Automatic annotation (TrEMBL):
Pfam families (UniProt xref): PEP-utilizers (PF00391), PEP-utilizers_C (PF02896), PPDK_N (PF01326)
Enzyme class label: transferase
EC number(s) given by UniProt: 2.7.9.1
Organism: gut metagenome
SUPFAM superfamilies: Glutathione synthetase ATP-binding domain-like (SSF56059), Phosphoenolpyruvate/pyruvate domain (SSF51621), Phosphohistidine domain (SSF52009)
Entry similarity comment: Belongs to the PEP-utilizing enzyme family.
Single GO term (MF): ATP binding
Keywords: ATP-binding, Kinase, Magnesium, Metal-binding, Nucleotide-binding, Pyruvate, Transferase
Listed name of the protein: pyruvate, phosphate dikinase
Length: 347
């Protein structure tokens, strides 16, 4: 019966049945849910068994599952011992493990010392970009799938879980409490950005690689597809990673994303709030060599592959500071009053 249903539907089946008075009754059957790894194995096995052609097998695996395989994953055996402390939105796929930090500055400093950290924030803002890039993963209390943390993390290919409303961050930002358990700065936690699960301990991660069933499956896709595959990449690091995964070019370099780095965002802010041509030119002189370095790095990584660049289209509100101390610092550098700069930010 199982073989009959599987051959008929040409997919792994999840069947419900009952036996009454020695007679078997089939209640229902549906395509079985499985992990990304299991989906690839099932697809390859069914081709080997002659149940599916490679073209048919390609349609049995969801694109979202393939995306998850392009990011770090948890070691299956280690994951069995892990305890889920909360579940929130799977904002950006992948797996991450690190020690808790509560500010972008902490994340940057500790990452520079070789430590793996998870950035835990109520919500993120453009000022956190450098720390977000330095962290292994990002966990936010507020925000949805289109929040700042989610969008930026997906752009960077970094693990993110957002909207974890069960978490209460202490007023001194030294710990957080979730479902009766308290975790302090420096404690280890792990995030699964593909499921939204947060684990209260270190879980070993495995780097993504295209091999085995995944490599075989993607070769079928390459033989069948008619479209070229390009990537979004805004930094030399993103471009190099895209080439590693087989991208045939860059479909979009979002120029404004180049300036989210901590050192660069300062110069772009100076340009935005410039009061005269002299200040504008001074800011542009700082920006030009930084942008040239990025473009050279991107072109080198792409090794002659096509690159499409979108000129600067800045969401100005995302670049300007919002924290009072950062507003005051920029105002002093620009020779403006705090009130004048705050009015610019609010506008």
């Amino acid at each position: 019966m199982c073989d009959t249903l599987e051959h008929h539907y040409k997919n792994m089946q999840d069947m419900e049945f009952t036996i009454e008075h020695g007679k078997l009754y089939m209640l229902q059957t549906r395509n079985g849910k499985r992990t990304a790894q299991a989906a690839l194995k099932v697809a390859c096995d069914m081709v080997d068994e002659g149940l599916l052609t490679p073209e048919e097998a390609l349609m049995t695996v969801e694109a979202q599952q393939l995306d998850a395989l392009l990011h770090p994953m948890f070691d299956p055996e280690d994951l069995k011992q892990a305890e889920v402390i909360t579940t929130a939105l799977p904002a950006s796929p992948g797996a991450a493990c690190g020690q808790i930090v509560f500010s972008a500055e902490e994340a940057t400093e500790q990452a520079a010392e070789g430590k793996k950290v998870i950035l835990v924030r109520l919500e993120t803002s453009p000022e956190d970009i450098q720390g977000m890039a330095a962290a292994e993963g990002i966990l936010t209390v507020r925000g949805g799938m289109t929040s700042h943390a989610a969008v930026v993390a997906r752009g960077m290919g970094e693990c993110c879980v957002s909207g974890a409303g069960d978490i209460v961050i202490a007023a001194d930002e030294g710990s957080f409490t979730v479902n009766g358990k308290t975790f302090k700065r420096g404690d280890w936690i792990s995030l699964d950005g593909s499921t939204g699960k947060v684990y209260g301990q270190a879980v070993k991660t495995i780097p993504a690689e295209i091999s085995g069933y995944f490599e075989r499956f993607m070769k079928w896709a390459d033989e069948t597809r008619r479209l070229q595959i390009r990537t979004n990449a805004d930094t030399p690091r993103d471009a190099a990673q895209a080439v590693k995964f087989g991208a045939e070019g860059i479909g979009l370099v979002r120029t404004e994303h180049m300036f989210f780095d901590g050192d660069k965002i300062k110069s772009i802010r100076e340009m935005i709030v410039a009061k005269n041509d002299e200040q504008m030119e001074a800011a542009l002189k700082k920006i030009e060599p930084l942008q040239q370095e990025d473009f050279e790095g991107i072109y080198e990584a792409m090794e002659g592959r096509p690159v499409t660049v979108r000129y600067l289209d800045p969401p100005l509100h995302e670049f300007l500071p919002h924290k009072p101390e950062e507003v005051a610092e920029l105002a002093e550098e620009m020779g403006m009053s705090v009130e004048e700069l705050q009015a610019k930010v609010d506008s």
